[in-house]
Known about the structure:
Layout: H1 7-27, H2 34-56, H3 63-85, H4 87-112, H5 118-130
Helix pairs in contact: 1-2, 2-3, 2-4, 3-4
Amino acid sequence: MNEYLRPWKLLTLAIGVTLLVVGSFYYQAPDWDVPISLIMAALAYLTAPSSMRVLLERRWREWPTMLFATWFTVDGSYWIYWDYKDPVALEMMREANFFASLSLYGMCGVLWLYRGSLQELTTEIRRCFQNPRSGPSR
Length: 138
């Protein structure tokens, strides 16, 4: 729970949500609006880092859960929302949305994967560049 409340993670979430909301007005895509931007961003914040961790740590038993969380965030929530709101937009845009959302989900997972403060992250990055043979201490 601590990881969800880290200021640097909340700030990056706020920046991402802002970009999504602004993009929904700027691009005028038939399937891009504020509610789905908020829904998918919140789900990504909650699930992307743990999904990435399952992949990186090769936790084979957790793959079904990780795959479901990834699918639900990237496509399931989108499908439920647009099937109710505008099935025509869903049919037109679902495939394109899947790949764009999956890419963003992976980037969010990498961004929010680190467990620690921004200061700790900065220290570890500096340490890696000072002594390239030593990896992160975690």
